[in-house]
């Protein structure tokens, strides 16, 4: 950019306009860009916060990485655990039994996912112990056939701590009377609530030894769960670990186990980015009308510059500077406002709720009473770059029109 074009473009931007309507349109374009950017940053930050909350709730019950065996169970699971623990990324491990079962209490019958765990080890790879509403996870003792239920599952079975439920295993046993399902009475010793419907309504925990006895696994387990120092290392560690596993075993990480959830969030984020970017695009292309009117207003000035030796390219650059500066100021205002709003969403939303006497998120429905927010530098940078590009593109046509002004025609009636 030539210094002359930059100087004149900045002077045009700062100068008081003879046509106040042009000034109003310029301010409206700048404000529109700022509002669009602020809205996009806020929405993206809230969606990042929801993604973080969903991930935290899922990983509070699931694991970063797990090694599974075939239907008969993982036989040499201790060797698998020892091998995995040699890796610096792995910080904890816990064997488990995973099986389906029917839980009945009186006339109530519900299907559930039964997980056999060792409480002391389970607390190192999951956070269920920290989400107990009643009882303690450590109360699961081998041979006592205690059971810990999700809050919604316990509610649907209409049981409380101390009540008994019957667990029916789908694998039957052959008797002279025919195939009879295996069943065992368990005593409810605890209830947990992690805030994720899938787990709260369908997960039951029993001791590992009791699950092995009920499902006749002997010393085998379904697999081993691992916690990593950095959960985002899970896909790489799973690939590396898979090369050393027995043929019948396989490794699966949390991104594969819950791919549907996170894929849906990513699709929603992309669509919201596209939709809200259109708002910025509309505001940015208001610059076209602003600059077209500015060019019309500055016809005599353009003619004088041309007669003094300014080239069409110089004139074009002058108005590109003027339009781009509006885009830059609008982008900066939007970024500052959007980041400020996104980082203080926990203050702004409650104030709006109190002012209008309504609740954005009901704890009974969403388990989250406050809008989560996470501002990411990458999102803010991408939004700012897109806004600047749109603003720059919007200046091209009016600037080209300015460069085509005929000095003789412009000065004829001056």
Rg = 32 Å
Low-confidence stretches: none
Classify the beta-strand content into a percent band: 15-25%
Integer count of domains? 2
Oligomer class: single chain
On the 0-100 scale, what is the average pLDDT?
A: 82
The H-and-E topology, N to C, reads as HHEHEEHEEHEEHEHEHEHHHHHHHH
What proportion of the residues is helical, as a percent range? Answer: 40-55%
* Largest sheet features: 6 strands, mixed, barrel
Question: Which descriptors would you attach to this protein?
Answer:
414 residues; alpha+beta; 10 strands; six-stranded mixed β-barrel; 55% helix; 16 helices
Can you tell me about this structure?
- The chain folds into 2 domains: 3-56 and 261-411, no CATH class; 63-257, no CATH class.
- The protein contains 16 helices and 10 strands.
- A 6-stranded mixed β-barrel has the order 2-3-8-5-7-6, surrounded by 4 helices.
- With 414 residues, it is of the alpha+beta class.
- Helices cover 55% and strands 20% of the residues.
- Helix 12 runs antiparallel to helix 15.
């Amino acid at each position: 950019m030539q210094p002359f074009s930059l100087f004149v473009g900045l002077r045009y931007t700062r100068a008081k306009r003879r046509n106040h309507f042009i000034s109003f349109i310029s301010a409206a374009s700048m404000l529109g860009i700022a509002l669009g950017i602020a809205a996009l940053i806020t929405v993206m930050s809230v969606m990042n916060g929801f993604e973080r909350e969903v991930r935290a709730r899922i990983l509070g019950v699931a694991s970063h990485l797990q090694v599974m065996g075939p239907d008969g169970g993982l036989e040499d699971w201790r060797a698998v655990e020892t091998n995995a623990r040699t890796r610096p990324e792995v910080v904890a491990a816990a064997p488990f039994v995973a099986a389906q079962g029917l839980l009945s209490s009186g006339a109530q019958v519900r299907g559930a996912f039964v997980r056999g765990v060792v409480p002391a080890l389970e607390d190192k790879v999951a956070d269920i112990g920290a989400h107990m509403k009643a009882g303690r996870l450590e109360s699961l003792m081998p041979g006592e056939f205690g059971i810990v239920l999700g809050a919604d599952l316990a509610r649907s079975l209409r049981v409380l701590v101390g009540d008994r439920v019957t667990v029916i295993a789908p694998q039957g046993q052959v008797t002279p009377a025919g195939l009879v399902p295996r069943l065992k009475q368990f005593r409810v010793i605890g209830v947990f609530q992690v805030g994720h419907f899938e787990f709260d309504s369908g997960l039951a925990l029993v001791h590992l030894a009791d699950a092995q006895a009920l499902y006749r696994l002997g010393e085998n387990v379904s697999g081993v769960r691992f916690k990593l120092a950095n959960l985002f290392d899970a896909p790489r560690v799973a690939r590396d670990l898979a090369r050393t596993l027995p043929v019948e075993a396989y490794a699966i990480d949390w991104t594969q186990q819950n791919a549907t959830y996170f894929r849906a969030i990513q699709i929603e984020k992309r669509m919201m980015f596209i939709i809200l970017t259109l708002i910025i695009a509309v505001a940015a292309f208001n610059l076209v009308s602003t600059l077209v009117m500015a060019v019309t207003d500055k016809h005599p000035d353009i003619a004088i510059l041309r007669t003094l030796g300014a080239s069409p390219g110089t004139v074009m650059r002058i108005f590109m500077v003027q339009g781009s500066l509006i885009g830059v100021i609008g982008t900066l205002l939007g970024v500052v406002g959007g980041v400020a709003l996104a980082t203080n969403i926990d203050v702004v939303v409650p104030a709006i709720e109190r002012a209008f006497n309504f609740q954005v998120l009901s704890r009974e429905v969403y388990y989250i009473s406050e809008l989560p927010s996470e501002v990411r530098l990458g999102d803010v940078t991408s939004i700012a770059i897109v806004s600047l590009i749109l603003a720059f593109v919007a200046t091209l046509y009016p600037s080209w029109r300015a460069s085509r002004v005929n000095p003789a025609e412009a000065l004829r009636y001056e």
